[in-house]
User: Fold this.
Amino acid sequence: MPVLSIDALLDDRGTEIIVCCGSGGVGKTTTSAALALRAAERGRKVVVLTIDPARRLAQSMGIEALDNTPRPVADIETSGGGALDAMMLDMKRTFDEVVESQASPEKAKQILENPFYVALSSSFAGTQEYMAMEKLGQLHREALGQGTYDLIVVDTPPSRSALDFLDAPERLSSFLDGRLIRLLVAPARGPARLMTAGLSVVTNALGKILGSQMLRDVQMFVTALDTLFGSFRQRAEKTFALLQADGTAFIVVASPEPDALREAAYFVDRLTDDDMPLAGLVINRASPSARTELSAEEAISAADRLRAQDSSSLTAGLLQLHADRVRIIEREQHLRERFAASHPHVPTAVVPAMASDVHDLDGLREIGVRLADQA
Assistant:
């Protein structure tokens, strides 16, 4: 299989965005943080954005808490001119920032206090992913306009929902641009003559289902939002185009397990279908090589002979442990080869497992070294 050259990717100034995606529990957040740290210590000005609710990123970087504002990471090597900030998405705060930046104080207050807006910005399906892309767009504009950053690393949520950000902007914009919403907001937009008998029947029926106050909240919210932002679909298309741009690189993260690699195959196929720039696959927590010529079968045979002579033989137990380890390594190798056979053009980096969990910058540096060392 082709090898994923991490340092070449990080050193390429044409790489402006790296998006790490993968299923849960495969070390995706750690990989994102390690990539960001290595890039910063190689001279890039980096911000890493996580939308994973876990707090591991802040803990590993020595930051008391992450929020919607980039926070500098201390104690990194900056002799090359690099810098590293970290942040965690607050979807409601991001939505609020969009409102506040586009509206007059009076209009913003009207929207922010609208009950439908409060519900939408806090829990509406797809809002988190949409706001993650809004924040990515904000960071990208800031990076280009002010030179604050030249690389953005995005850590996505676990499971297949990690690719929901490819669909959620379209879903949310379709909802806000959709025929139903246009129908709901029509009475607030136009003159009374637009309230035809058919429209009146529909809105009256919706009022009974939703409640007249909620219907008014929706109408007021969508009308105010529409006058401020125009089409949400246009914003979603810009975000999608940014993800498809040459300066973006997707890295799929997996562990050497059947389910994780099956999910990785899904991610790779989906990114390919959507013409997203796939940099490659990172297989985390691989078992280190046994570095011996003794096969599992030979070890088991020898262990059986020793046990026949001494049932408590320590050597027999060690041989059995060796056989188990060799079989795990062989199974992982088989899984990687099977993935490579079905995706022969996907560059891959295999990262040996650490002896303990990563919980500080030194651990992240070691992960970065292992990512880059694919000789």
Observations:
- The chain has two domains: 6-165+238-289+346-372, 296-334.
- Residues 314-342 form the longest helix (29 residues).
